[in-house]
Design brief:
This protein is of the alpha/beta class. It has eight helices and 13 strands. It has an eight-stranded mixed sheet.
Length: about 270
């Protein structure tokens, strides 16, 4: 059996992977990453003691930089990995002066967003986004059919402004409303619930607060070839006052999707530059 992560040696929502492998008669296990979670680690040694050939560390760097990146970060940092996603015009506006924003990007980019939603544990917005856009925050295919698995929907609403008829409160998926004043409190509450990867889809105020708290680990920007010149900025106040405090993005990928451009980058904080 070839797996990305060392087979676990603990009981969580399911039993130990090691015992399942032994019961299945697996004779050889190849894995990339040693499990950094002390509660789950030790599976490789357990299997070896029982006669299973085990080879670890195979393409470990590739595994750590790929699909395992958010989970590894969450386990090591003790908080969920946060991907901030936004769609904007080329001059950085997420809505026009009259607050209209449907649709900035094209159908191909919007479909890609649903693919992104499908791989996270939770989608997070502030109450302001709910009041302005009334999003449903679900995963749907190109025909609008909901996916079988839906991530947790999270709304930050410390001022208790969330209307009871908001679409985010329907029965399409589970919703958690948090009455918190700081992103780090939200991060702890979600981590304790088992959330390891968050897609931040909030407006500029929430995005600015998360960036200021250094709770943004990845940025996915969908840029449309449009110019507005006025309107709502993608990012609000993030506590940055001089160019020396600017957060640089280490660009990991640039892709053209339909008429739009998708940019994936990871923050490099000023003292790291």
């Amino acid at each position: 059996m070839v797996v990305t992560l060392e087979p676990c040696q603990h009981t969580g929502r399911t039993g130990p992977c090691t015992k399942a492998l032994l019961a299945a008669g697996i004779k050889r296990v190849v894995y990339a990453m040693t499990d950094p979670n002390p509660e789950a680690a030790g599976g490789a040694a357990y299997l070896r003691r029982r006669g299973v050939e085990v080879l670890g560390g195979v393409t470990a760097d590739d595994a750590a930089a790929g699909a395992l990146r958010p989970w590894l970060h969450a386990i090591r940092a003790g908080r969920p990995y946060v991907t901030w996603k936004y769609a904007a015009t080329l001059d950085g506006r997420v809505a026009a002066r009259d607050w209209s924003s449907r649709w900035i990007t094209g159908p191909a980019a919007r479909a890609d967003v649903h693919d992104l939603r499908a791989i996270v544990d939770a989608i997070l917005v502030g109450s302001g986004t709910v009041l302005e856009d009334d999003p449903q925050l679900t995963v749907r295919d190109t025909d609008g059919v909901p996916a079988t698995h839906q991530p947790l929907r999270v709304v930050l609403d410390r001022r208790h402004r969330l209307p009871q008829d908001a679409r985010v409160l329907d029965n399409s998926a589970e919703t958690l409303v948090l009455d918190v004043a700081a992103p780090r409190f939200a991060m702890k509450a979600l981590f304790d619930r088992g959330v390891r990867h968050i897609l931040l889809e909030g407006g500029p105020t929430v995005a600015g607060a998360f960036l200021e708290a250094r709770c943004v680990d990845e940025v996915v920007a969908y840029l449309a070839p449009k110019l507005l010149g006025d309107g709502l900025h993608a990012l609000g106040d993030a506590g940055i006052h001089t160019i020396d405090q600017a957060v640089t993005l280490d660009v990991a990928d640039v892709t053209r999707i339909g008429d739009d451009v998708k940019i994936v980058g990871r923050p490099v904080w000023p003292e790291e530059q």
